[in-house]
Amino acid sequence: MKLLLSKKKERFLFHPSLTKLITHKLNYVYNIVGVNYLLIILSLIFTAFFSNLNGQTSKTVKKVVHSFQIPEDYLREPENIPSFWITTVDEVTKFLKNNVYKGQVEIIGKSAGGNPIHAVFYGKPRQGKGTTTFSGSLGFGNVGAYRGPDHKKTVYMGMSAVHGGEFEGIVGTVNLISVIETGKDLRGKEWPEITAIVAKLDRIILIPIVNPDGRARIPLRMEAYRDTDFTVAEFLNTGGKPNGTITGWPQIKEFIPTDFTRPGFPGGYPNDAGVNLQHDNFLGKRQPETQALFNLTERERPDLIINMHTGSVYMLMDHPLGEPALHPAFDTLFKYVHTGLALNGLQYTKDPKIEGDPARASTGVYNLDGALNFNCGALSVVVESPSHGFSGKNEAGEPALQTPDMLLDAQLICHQEAMRFLVETGGRSVWTPGRKR
Predict the structure, then answer these.
(1) Partners of 109 in beta bridges
(2) Fewest Cβ atoms closer than 10 Å to its Cβ: which of 50, 103, 138, 252?
(3) Residue 230 near residue 94 (C-beta atoms within 8 A)
(4) How buried is 243 (Cβ within 10 angstroms: 0-12 exposed, 13-18 middle, 19+ buried)?
(5) pLDDT tens, position by position, 361-373
(6) CA nearest 407: which of 168, 233, 230, 166?
(7) CA-wise closest residue to 126 among 158, 157, 103, 148
(8) Per-residue pLDDT tens for 151-173?
């Protein structure tokens, strides 16, 4: 390509008629301004000429850097942050570099702000491709035609920090990677059931931080605990004014993209383009983070995606707005996860019949999880975790205190039971086997 470009320049510069014209003009300039000015003019002409041929421009495009205002007290951290509490972009990147040996770390894309999005892969990917699109397989009546010859393989995917200010999912994903790698979380606690279940899955994909832009915007490793006052946690997530007034939920969703030129703080919800990835323009021009997820799930064709968020009194799974054919699978998944949480004292009660009732789940709106379902056929669900920054109130009106250890236990139990569900139910090809022919 460089050789061809060079030849084009040569032909253009030394065409006889062009050479004659240039010589005439240079003689004219020389007679008027003299040799020194002539050399300067020649230098400017040739610099501009060759720059244009190379597709360059003399203009420098500067990235707009916004300064955000956060009340000083909102940046207060606990005096003793637990060693297992790894949440920042730099901490997670360092952890993956130094601790992943059994798996493979891959950059699946870059954020709107240019930050890499890391994923960790375990097991072997599906081999071969299907013969049709996912939509085509639904029309045909058998998703195996889309998923390919090894459609019965079980593929589990977990992701966190779609909203950069929600730290609990990051902690859970990082510690799950530690368990897969060593059998222990970062506290040194063993999880033999997770180790046994992982061995029965064909493929595991874990993304600790989907939205590194939003996470990097919040200069905290861990928020200070503030009893039942959620002002700071909501401010850091949804943004607010310099005086500490919060934007709030769901008001933050009214304007997408967020206007970063307005005074205050935009929160950790949006990426650097101002877009809340949970509510991207999925059928239009998608954000790079969303496109990375679409590309990944199209390639890997996972059965189950667990999308970790923060925003409940006790951990709670939402019913996705997706294929009706997957509703029975969701109900079973809900029973698995919430039974496990209840038996470990991480729900309102310890009664599995009460806590494991899928009627408790509220149905979500059209969002990232529905879009991922229709992109690749996975059952994709949001799980809302309690916050480390404040306590919600239980049914008795009392603060439902969740210690960092309890929050980590809930994260790992959720992943454990979701993976168990996938192993014991057999995945998408069993949930919707297709009509017999």
Answers:
(1) 117
(2) 50
(3) no
(4) exposed
(5) 998 899 999 999 9
(6) 168
(7) 148
(8) 999 999 999 999 999 999 999 99
Best CA proximity match to 87, nearest among 165, 184, 27 = 165
Contacts (Cβ under 8 Å, ≥6 apart) of 314:
341, 346, 347, 348, 386, 392, 394, 400, 402
Q: Which of 70, 110, 150, 49 is nearest to 427 (CA)?
A: 150
Pull the structure tokens for residue 13. 């510069």
Asked whether 117 and 109 are in contact (CB, 8 A), the reply is yes
Per-position b or e across 194-222, b if 16+ CB within 10 A of its CB = beebbeebbbbbbbbbbbbbbbbbbebeb
In terms of C-beta density within 10 A (0-12 exposed, 13-18 middle, 19 or more buried), how is residue 241 classed? middle
Residue 193 pLDDT exceeds 70:
yes
Residue range 7-20: mean pLDDT, rounded: 38
**Domain 72-431 - what CATH class?**
alpha beta
Is residue 306 within 8 Å of 131, Cβ to Cβ?
Answer: no
* Residue 307 contacts residue 369 (beta carbons within 8 Å): yes
E strands within 1-69?
Answer: none
User: What predicted TM-score, i.e. pTM, was given to this entire model?
Assistant: 0.84
Q: How does DSSP assign 57-86, residue by residue?
A: -SPPPPPP-------GGGG---SS--TT--
Residue 274: φ, ψ to 5°: 85, 15
pLDDT tens for 244-281 read: 889 998 989 998 999 898 878 999 999 999 999 999 99
Token pair for 167: 């730290």
Domain positions in the chain = 2-53, 72-431
Interval 49-64: pLDDT, tens: 333 333 333 333 345 5
Instruction: Give per-residue burial for 101-118: e unless 16+ CB within 10 Å, then b.
Output: eebeeeebbebbbebebb
Distances (CA, A) of 192 to 177, 198, 201, 417: 14, 10, 15, 13
Sole residue written with tokens 């390919």: 148
Cα 117 versus chain centre, distance: 7
Q: Taking a C-beta distance cutoff of 8 angstroms, is the pair 296, 126 a contact?
A: no
